[in-house]
Specification:
homodimer; about 475 residues; 7-stranded mixed β-sheet; 5-stranded mixed β-sheet; globular
């Protein structure tokens, strides 16, 4: 009971602080957000040694990978700073009418962020959800991930220094620690306006359900579960099966298979030994430590269950923490058993052997929502490739040709999301600058005198941003 | 039980048909959607006499108003046709990389539409939800509104003729009749991908809850409840209180007060007789028939409850169907009692008298989500107006200066939505061409060969649409 009351008190204080920042509006000044995002990138970089050492101790992902991830994280902050600077975040749309209507974006309110265990920087405390929410002008409350609490604390301190350096209120960014109760309490708090989450299907769904049951429901942008099917078409398999197997094996073991875009299923026609090739490649990769003992146990349990499943051939050895595994199953069996299409978090991939291209298309049509789907094809695969490219957008957020799904560029053209269960809202992305729209809502101004309009919508265009005026994009002022 | 089974069978057949259209993809050709939207507008116009007569018999809204509403509805179909034609629906965004990433929109899937009683054309069978979903390439299943079943049937037949004329499959557009069970069954069906709704808070929330509980949750875009506060500032009140009272009275009785943007609350400082002025104007407007006996009874009941409420002065007569009413309440009382801030559907407005401008700002800060908020001000009101314009975007989707909230232009800059309870998702609009994004989800193509890309993303830009290439808007082809 004492703990329970303590949780409520802590959450109440954090959310009241965040709400006060939202109402007082210091983040509505784009210059403040710009300064904050840049300062946060600098402060994180200033703590790089400490962050990387600590994250490596907590996640065992390796210093090289973590160095790269930190760079990606600060670059990401810079990308959001750029769209704050150029004004594109505002989506300014002006119709001179009558009626004179001018629409721009407004921050949705305090955002609660739940980071992921597998990316302690890029999808955690200083990650894309935090960056996009701050860029949108929303105060942020992070629940620190319990798998890397010290990393989270160092990152939060760096962002706190940035907040302070640019003269914003402390409650612009806050981080709480705790378990499920703190998380639920944050999502249920009336001052919370939206939630960003990266993690498991069970965790994301629980937060979605809590948010939907509120008296005032709020959106939950949860990036959850994906097996990222890869289709290796007959031409590609014949021409360069070896190279594809090596490339896929590298992708499967990346981050010890603990990537949300990890290729969990490889679909081929008449596998002609491709599964054995891939299995041999995977068996050659050394085992590595996984993020947590719980994740390692889950992974080994999942591999063992596949060993015990009738109709599934395990082509690699006994389950072992962080040791890549490969299994082979016929397409009929795969189509019949939804359990085989559930995500296994770790370096496992399942080869699905189809009898012919039409069965491959039937398999393609059966997948639930995915972050990515990949096609390896050659000139000989033209017809089946065209058929596949018509089916895959039905379930996937990103289609990759001739390349691995791991690696998600921070680009204005990126989409990292997909229909459920890949995410709770396939219309949203959690990577790339388009992620900002999750935390913005439009406000239209009708007939409002110029001097009372936000600068983004004033005739003179004092910020010099690109606006759509009567249907045409322009940075010109409006002369009336 | 027989009825129950019948409902399931009917819904199953409709949704399976819609899903087949989604998978077969005939609507993914923009030319087909363009032809359909234009043909639907023409067919509705061809049935105008029948539609208006029937709608008038069913809704008693009057032929002039209904004639105007039908024109608005066909114009709306034309506006969506225009954004299909110019390609802006696709939001094509290309980064030449590496990686080469190209993102465009993809239809979300079959959309179920629930129309409103108060706009039998513009927010019902042939209304904005249907138009935006078809423009997005989503097959549509409408549940006909039980308050105007014959109007709905004539409109559906007109759209059916359009579907047939342009050679699209019958299941591109379907309409079912029935009550709550059919509606729930439609929302729960696994092939339903999104829901559009306009109506009551209770109805919208029930559908939202049903959609959130699904194994695969889907978005519900429900436009529900709004009291559309109007702030008449001291300068405007002193300079032209009479004119403002007349203008507001006209707005309150428009459509017998059955508009979602009906001004239900008027906030003034030291009312100086303004409430009496407005009440006198309203008492002068003749009573008119309301949409249904149920709506009339609810309205009279709500007026009577206000008469019986301590601290509320009713300035007009006894409750009567469709007779405008005006009540006066002090700001302290209004701030204390959330019941006074609930929507009354009908020609009622409540004047809230504040003691000073700072109390007016406190009242402004207390409103829940609204479709609109309006300010009448003059040069003398500069300071309080600036304060107000900083607060109102926190709860409203559209701010109007010196004009009534009723009347919602179909414009690219329109926003018709607002935080809950105005809608289930304040980030979405149900009027204006931006409404299309509710039914689209992004798909990114990475490294896909040009000939396998959708036309919208191919180097040559064969459709000649505007695209954002490496950050710049252009219709030029990409030369590699």
């Amino acid at each position: 009971m004492g703990d329970h009351r303590q949780t409520r008190t802590t959450v109440e204080a954090a959310m009241k602080g965040a709400a006060a920042v939202h109402w007082d509006g210091p983040l509505r000044d784009p210059a403040s957000r710009l300064a904050l995002l840049r300062a946060a990138a600098n402060e994180l970089e200033a703590s790089a040694t400490d962050l990387i050492e600590t994250a490596n101790a907590e996640t065992r992902l390796g210093e090289d990978r973590l160095r790269g991830e930190l760079t990606r994280t600060t670059t990401q902050l810079g990308a959001f700073a750029a769209i704050v600077a150029d004004g594109s975040w505002a989506g300014a749309t002006i119709e001179l009418g009558p009626p004179d209507l001018r629409r721009m974006m407004w921050p949705i309110g305090p955002v609660v962020v739940f980071g992921a265990s597998n990316f302690p920087f890029a999808f955690s405390t200083p990650g894309g959800d935090t960056a996009s929410a701050l860029a949108a002008g929303c105060p942020v409350v992070v629940k620190a991930h319990p798998a890397h609490p010290r990393t989270a604390a160092i990152a939060a301190t760096a962002i706190d220094r940035a907040v302070s350096a640019v003269g914003l209120p402390t409650a612009t960014f806050q981080q709480l620690t705790g378990g499920v109760e703190v998380g639920t309490c944050l999502v249920e708090h009336p001052d919370t306006s939206a939630v960003g989450f990266t993690g498991s299907l069970a965790g994301g769904r629980a937060l979605y359900d809590a948010a939907s049951r509120r008296p005032i429901p709020i959106p939950v942008f949860a990036e959850m579960s994906s097996i990222n099917p890869v289709f290796v078409l007959p031409g590609a398999l014949a021409e360069r099966g070896d190279a594809v197997a090596r490339e896929l094996a590298d992708s499967v073991v990346l981050g010890v298979g603990q990537f949300c875009t990890n290729p969990g299923v490889v679909v081929v026609v008449d596998d002609s030994g491709f599964a054995e090739l891939l299995a041999a490649e995977l068996a050659n990769r050394p085992a590595a430590a996984m993020l947590t003992p719980g994740i390692a146990a889950s992974y080994c349990g999942a591999v063992q269950r596949l060993i015990d499943t009738v109709g599934v051939d395990v082509l690699t050895g006994a389950p072992e923490e962080g040791q890549a595994a490969c299994v082979l199953v016929g397409a009929d069996r795969f189509l019949d058993d939804p359990d085989l299409r559930a995500e296994v978090f770790g370096p496992l991939t399942m080869v699905v052997a189809c009898e012919d291209p039409s069965q491959l298309l039937r398999v393609a049509a059966r997948f639930e929502g995915q972050l990515t789907s990949t096609v390896y094809g050659s000139g000989r695969d033209r017809d089946v490739a065209a058929g596949l490219l018509g089916i895959l957008p039905m379930h996937a957020g990103r289609l990759i040709w001739d390349g691995v799904p791991t690696g998600v560029a921070v680009s204005p053209a990126m989409h990292h999301g997909g229909p459920y269960p890949a995410s709770t809202d396939g219309r949203s992305t959690s990577v790339g600058t388009a992620a900002i729209v999750r935390f913005l809502r439009p406000v239209a101004y009708q007939g409002v005198p110029d001097e009372l309009l936000p600068a983004e919508l004033q005739n003179a265009n004092p910020l010099g941003i690109e606006r759509r005026v009567n249907g045409t994009s322009t940075t010109d002022p409006i002369v009336r």
